[in-house]
């Protein structure tokens, strides 16, 4: 067949177009292969609607009446400390180390005489005691607060710890009865082991001012009871008279459990806690619900850790929403990291399943952060893994 030069040119064009088409099909195919390989490698999606704790909060709060939503999510006065608790984590950058074999990541820590994963929950009410997230081989730690609407006695097999949960004092003539906020620390193997420690909330001599409760005319749901406080009766008052030299010896006389102070935020008080031989401190500002204007707990942790380190174990809470937040708190000296609102959002989203989802998300995020930062164990995480950006934009190692 004869081809004119025009035909030839057209033909050449046709073939080169065909070649281009085939090449791009092959390229697209290879690209798909590559993408699916990457996709195969990504973390499993636990819930298509909830990939992060931020998603969990949104899902949990979507249909929640404003009165309850604000009660859980807001805090004292202008919410400055509340917001700073979360913002503080973004002020720290992670300094990753590479070429370290991170095929095996161990999340366990060593505290309360057990080996839980390095974070835990504090809970306030409607808690299904000792009944969540048993899937992990390591124990999880929970705090059961005196306000809990389940009786602490229901899961107490240890024979000690129970009486102090009802700690209250006659106020010698004034009206009302004074009492302390206590949190019993337990684990998911609680039925066998009993309580591990008792946390005394030392940041509540009086209650902070939470404006949302006034604006929304907050009321507790009908029928909610506090079975742990039945002995206290009407006219409950916080104990504004609480002091180091009376409270700690009295608690020691009442319980064999470890005694921890929750709500310590200044190095001077860390030194006093060591002096009074308490078993541990929790750096906390009550999730921004007490004194607005105090530092973010992450900043307090950095301030307090040098006094505490090696002398007294440090628990930490406030604003933790990601696995990388847990990493940063551990790097700044926390031995164990607690969360308050996260399990509440989990419960509101899907009950027990929602709390388990939160646990899994945070476990996966912490494991990934540790691997990418070059840390195989919790003990390997240290201040050297953190930096801050100075005002002039220069990265500064801690
Ligand atoms: C609704 C609600 C009620 C709380 N009640 C108490 C309490 O009675 N005693 C206490 O020590 N802490 C209480 N907390 C504070 C938590 O124990 C914890 O310190 C705080 O929530 C941690 O901050 P996060 O929520 O940002 O994790 C409460 C927190 C929330 C959200």
TrEMBL record:
Q: Tell me where in this chain the FMN hydroxy acid dehydrogenase domain is found.
A: 45-391
Quick check: keyword Phosphoprotein in the entry? no
Any one GO molecular function term:
oxidoreductase activity
Cofactor(s) annotated in UniProt: FMN
Query: What are the transmembrane regions?
Result: 20-39
Keyword Cytoplasm assigned to the entry: answer is no
Q: Enumerate the residues binding glyoxylate.
A: 71, 210, 286, 289
Q: Which UniProt keywords apply?
A: Flavoprotein, FMN, Membrane, Oxidoreductase, Transmembrane, Transmembrane helix
Domain of life according to the entry: Eukaryota
Please list the residues that bind FMN: 262, 284, 317-321, 340-341
* Active-site residues per Swiss-Prot or TrEMBL entry: 286 (proton acceptor)
Cite the Pfam families for this sequence.
FMN_dh
The record, for InterPro entries, names: Aldolase_TIM (IPR013785), Alpha-hydoxy_acid_DH_FMN (IPR012133), FMN-dep_DH (IPR000262), FMN_HAD (IPR037396), FMN_hydac_DH_AS (IPR008259)
- What family classification does the UniProt entry report for this protein? Belongs to the FMN-dependent alpha-hydroxy acid dehydrogenase family.
Instruction: Report what the protein is called.
Output: FMN-dependent dehydrogenase
